[in-house]
């Protein structure tokens, strides 16, 4: 029998509510995906301000849920389970979604699943490309995370293979955008500029690729500093900054390291499928380069469409549906958000 | 009518079920824990326990009265997010109540017969306050100030309620009355008129009184020495 799962996401600056249908055969169908973003309120601060995000979540929670239900043509009485991001994320932001989710579950008398945001980024791919093969490798890249994960079962078994030792990839984009006087968030404007530029114009460093570096960890702090130094030196010489070339060369360095390590990890572990998700997955150079290298290595590449890659409630509903299907015990109603929830804890 | 009352504006995690009639209020079930860090964790369990103690079910509720602060804790939002989702799921109206008014409503039902002030802890060495006449009608506030600044507004020996009054009794020069935190009966009394008349409630918007701490970035920092 099909079951409806409502998912709530509030870990950063997007308030998301999604609805999915879990079919008897275990497949999960997307019914609604509504998001209210506070990104514009953070733009003048150059990064997410936790208190501003938390205030926006509270304001947007019920209206976003109402919109998602209207989109799906459902009412709350049709909902069979609630899933919510329990972590990782901003404490005050997570609290709003978790409080609302607990109240929905209590009032509707349905099970509650507090789930892991990072696993949600992987589970969302099943909405577009169907069940995930086991095992598969996931590369999560966004403003908050940069991780390589081995996924044996998205509902129960995820192991971290590598992660960033300093900045997330998306953070490096935001900082480089600031250096180049491009708007926040930095991903889209850098991608646009990079398409006009020459990716080989400047040889920016590839972090953590030395023989003694951890094979599957990442570092973007040195790259960000190298870009700033290069721009400052050009300014000192009185030159006009070739923004397009700097953006293209920076983006090439990011995409090169991410795809090289992901493909190598998959090859070494004998894993045949790579999933790339998270806000930075929408980056044009990353997806193109990943596609080329996956073809060369004989690896199947799955990248959810951009709307599913960024933070949303559908990814949490999708993960909740897989967790429900796996027969995992629901969360207790005294569930607390955990801002540093490890990726290996998929539901709590 | 059956009203669920919720407040998370102070260190207390407060939930209760109250029978409201034109003649008065009767508390049927209540569950309160003093723990400023547990609002998110405990509130929904407290609501369910209070409802069970009242011998009723969530779906029997007619309305919700929810404290909207002012409150310094991130947990303030736990109460409002919970009330909002309960109201949405149960199809009942959620009445916003200034949490200081809820304390005042409780004070005014006692033998208080002079104007008084309600003071709660705003942290960062400040207090939230509002002043009331003897009937419990708010005359000034809510505001946020240092206790010494608030003291200037108050006549010597003013009667004060709220945990902030206890904490800063000497600096404020006040005589302290109960309650220290909003009570379920006080929350319902403060929303009484709207509840009984069935007036559509106003928006469930927190009384923050402070701007978020956030600084706009200045000039870009150079990474190379000049
Ligand atoms: Zn994310």
Automatic annotation (TrEMBL), chain A:
Cofactors, names only: Fe(2+)
Compartment(s): Cytoplasm
Annotated SUPFAM superfamilies: Actin-like ATPase domain
GO cellular component: cytoplasm
Record domain Gcp-like: where: 29-317
BP terms from Gene Ontology: tRNA threonylcarbamoyladenosine modification
InterPro entries documented for this protein: ATPase_NBD (IPR043129), Gcp-like_dom (IPR000905), KAE1/TsaD (IPR017861), Peptidase_M22_CS (IPR017860), TsaD (IPR022450)
GO terms assigned for molecular function: iron ion binding; tRNA N(6)-L-threonylcarbamoyladenine synthase activity
Enzyme class: transferase
Assigned EC number: 2.3.1.234
Primary site of residence: cytoplasm
Residue positions binding Fe cation: 117, 121, 311
Lineage: superkingdom: Bacteria
PROSITE patterns per the UniProt record, alphabetical: GLYCOPROTEASE
Reactions catalysed: L-threonylcarbamoyladenylate + adenosine(37) in tRNA = N(6)-L-threonylcarbamoyladenosine(37) in tRNA + AMP + H(+)
Keyword Zinc: no
Cofactor: binding comment: Binds 1 Fe(2+) ion per subunit.
Family listed: Belongs to the KAE1 / TsaD family.
Alphabetical list of PANTHER family matching this protein: TRNA N6-ADENOSINE THREONYLCARBAMOYLTRANSFERASE, TRNA N6-ADENOSINE THREONYLCARBAMOYLTRANSFERASE, MITOCHONDRIAL
Family matches, as HAMAP family: TsaD (MF_01445)
Functional summary from the UniProt entry: Required for the formation of a threonylcarbamoyl group on adenosine at position 37 (t(6)A37) in tRNAs that read codons beginning with adenine. Is involved in the transfer of the threonylcarbamoyl moiety of threonylcarbamoyl-AMP (TC-AMP) to the N6 group of A37, together with TsaE and TsaB. TsaD likely plays a direct catalytic role in this reaction.
Name recorded for this polypeptide: tRNA N6-adenosine threonylcarbamoyltransferase
Lineage: Bacteria, Bacillati, Actinomycetota, Actinomycetes, Pseudonocardiales
TrEMBL record, chain B:
Ranges where the Gcp-like domain occurs: 36-142
BP GO annotations: tRNA threonylcarbamoyladenosine modification
Disordered, as annotated region: 201-226
A GO cellular component entry from the record: cytosol
InterPro entries, alphabetized: ATPase_NBD, Gcp-like_dom, T6A_TsaB
The protein's name: tRNA threonylcarbamoyl adenosine modification protein YeaZ
Species of provenance: Amycolatopsis marina
């Amino acid at each position: 029998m099909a079951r409806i799962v409502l998912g709530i996401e509030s870990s950063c600056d997007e308030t998301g509510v999604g609805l999915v249908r879990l079919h008897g055969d275990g497949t999960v169908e997307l019914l609604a995906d509504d998001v209210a973003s506070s990104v514009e309120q953070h733009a003048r601060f150059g990064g997410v301000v936790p208190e501003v995000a938390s205030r926006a979540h509270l304001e947007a929670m019920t209206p976003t849920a109402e919109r998602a239900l209207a989109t799906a043509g459902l009412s709350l009485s049709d909902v069979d389970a609630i899933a919510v991001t329990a972590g990782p994320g901003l404490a005050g932001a997570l609290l709003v979604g978790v409080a609302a989710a607990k109240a929905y579950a209590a009032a509707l008398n349905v099970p509650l699943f507090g789930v892991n945001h990072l696993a949600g980024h992987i589970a969302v791919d099943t909405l577009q490309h169907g069940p995930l093969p086991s095992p598969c490798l996931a590369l999560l890249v966004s403003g908050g995370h940069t991780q390589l994960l081995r996924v044996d079962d998205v509902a129960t078994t995820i192991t971290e293979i590598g992660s960033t030792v300093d900045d997330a990839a998306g953070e490096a984009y935001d900082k480089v955008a600031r250096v180049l006087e491009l708007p926040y968030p930095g991903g889209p404007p850098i991608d646009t500029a990079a398409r006009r530029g020459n990716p080989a114009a400047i040889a920016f460093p590839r972090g953590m690729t030395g023989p003694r570096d951890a094979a599957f960890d990442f570092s973007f702090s040195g790259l960000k500093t190298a870009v700033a130094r290069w721009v400052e030196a050009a300014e000192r010489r009185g030159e006009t900054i070739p923004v397009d070339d700097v953006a293209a060369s920076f983006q090439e360095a990011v995409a090169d390291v991410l795809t090289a390590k992901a493909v190598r990890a998959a090859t070494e572990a004998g894993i045949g499928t790579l999933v790339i998700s998270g806000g930075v997955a929408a980056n044009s150079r990353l997806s193109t380069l990943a596609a080329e290298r996956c073809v060369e290595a004989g690896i199947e590449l799955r990248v959810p469409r951009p709307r599913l890659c960024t933070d949303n409630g559908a990814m949490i509903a999708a993960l909740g549906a897989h967790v429900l299907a796996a027969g995992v015990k629901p969360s207790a109603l005294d569930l607390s958000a955990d801002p540093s929830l490890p990726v290996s804890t998929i539901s709590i | 009518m059956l009203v669920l009352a919720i407040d998370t504006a102070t260190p207390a995690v407060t939930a209760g079920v109250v029978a409201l009639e034109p003649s008065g209020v009767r508390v049927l079930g209540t569950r309160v824990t003093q723990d400023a860090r547990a609002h998110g964790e405990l509130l929904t369990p407290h609501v369910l326990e209070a409802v069970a103690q009242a011998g009723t079910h969530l779906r029997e509720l007619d309305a919700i009265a929810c404290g909207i602060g002012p409150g310094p804790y991130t947990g303030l939002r736990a109460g409002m997010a919970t009330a909002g989702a309960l109201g949405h799921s149960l199809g009942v109206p959620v009445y916003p109540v200034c949490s200081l008014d809820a304390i005042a409503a409780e004070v005014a039902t006692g033998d208080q017969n002079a104007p008084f002030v309600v003071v709660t802890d705003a942290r960062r060495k400040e207090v939230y306050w509002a002043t009331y006449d003897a009937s419990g009608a708010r005359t000034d506030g809510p505001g946020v100030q240092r206790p010494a600044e608030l003291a200037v507004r108050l006549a010597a020996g003013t009667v004060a309620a709220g945990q902030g009054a206890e904490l800063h009794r000497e600096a404020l020069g006040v005589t302290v009355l109960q309650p220290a935190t909003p009570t379920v009966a006080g929350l319902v009394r403060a929303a009484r008129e709207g509840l009984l008349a069935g007036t559509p409630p106003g928006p469930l918007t927190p009384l923050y009184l402070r701007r978020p701490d956030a600084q706009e970035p200045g000039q870009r920092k150079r990474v190379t020495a000049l």
